[in-house]
Amino acid sequence: MGQEIEKKFLLKNENWRNLAQGKKYCQGYLSTEKGRTVRVRIIGERGFFTVKGPSEGETRLEFEYEIPVSEANEILEKLCHKPLIQKTRYKIPFEGFTWEVDEFEGENKGLVFAEIELQHEGETFAVPEWIDREVTDDPRYYNANLVTNPFCKW
Amino acid sequence: MGQEIEKKFLLKNENWRNLAQGKKYCQGYLSTEKGRTVRVRIIGERGFFTVKGPSEGETRLEFEYEIPVSEANEILEKLCHKPLIQKTRYKIPFEGFTWEVDEFEGENKGLVFAEIELQHEGETFAVPEWIDREVTDDPRYYNANLVTNPFCKW
């Protein structure tokens, strides 16, 4: 178990793009209820099952378990809400922190944002020049909400 | 992954009661959406995470994973829908099959029913004399529905 403290930002330019190699993510949701999100995710050849609690400011309870990728695939295809979320994630180190830039595909094509995970609320961090304004509090950017309200409908 | 084929029955009398020792189960649901039930369960000192697909007749897709009992407990307390389901399960062997009798507590106190799991639809099995009519098709008896519509309200 853990607590997730995440901040989300838009991007100012394309200067992040050559700083890391991207990895394909495919994920879907069994529940997008407020306060109990249940996600299944495939990263490369590995499957994961994740439960997230309600967002309280930047903090969220999170439980993650690895599961066989074949079963992750079957749950995604047969049981998760559609459309599935397809994205490429770029992990970019910057002054002691890792910025994760997600570039979406499918019905969310055109959407790109960055996340940084903190150890505790209020922790300070340096901001790369390619980072734009913060959107942590905007629920449209929650991945779970990108299923029901994808970027192409914004 | 697996497919679950289950039949559910009411009980005619108390003759099942001394045929097995019961074990305490505590379980809750992160999602009770039709077609994608997500359950967390503690049996004794072990925790489990289970995803079930839609019921199609007696058959249901089912995926189950063991998780640390302390995390199961935290998910049950903090994230699952209330009330949690508390029951004692008695596993009773009878002519090559195992009958599971569930005796509920809390808001479902007074409710008792038996389940038998089959290998394939249409498989034949012997019926103990303490088994009454079948209720497989009555959704009130789904454990997930006993959260929102417990036995005390029937």
Written account of the structure:
Chains A, B: This is CYTH domain-containing protein. Chains A, B: Residues 2-148 form the CYTH domain. Chains A, B: InterPro entries: CYTH_domain, NeuTTM/CthTTM-like. Two copies of one chain form a homodimer. With 154 residues, the first copy, chain A, is mainly β. The first copy, chain A, has one domain (2-153): Hypothetical Protein Pfu-838710-001, CATH 2.40.320.10. Chain A contains two helices and nine strands, in the order βββββαββββα. Chain A has an eight-stranded antiparallel β-barrel. The radius of gyration of chain A is 15 Å and the shape is globular. The first copy, chain A, starts with a strand and ends in a 6-residue tail after the last helix. Chain A binds chain B through residues 1, 30-31, 33, 35-36, 38, 49, 51, 53, 61, 63, 65, 67, 70-71, 74-75, 78-80, and chain B through 1, 30-31, 33, 35-36, 38, 49, 51, 53, 61, 63, 65, 67, 70-71, 74-75, 78-80.
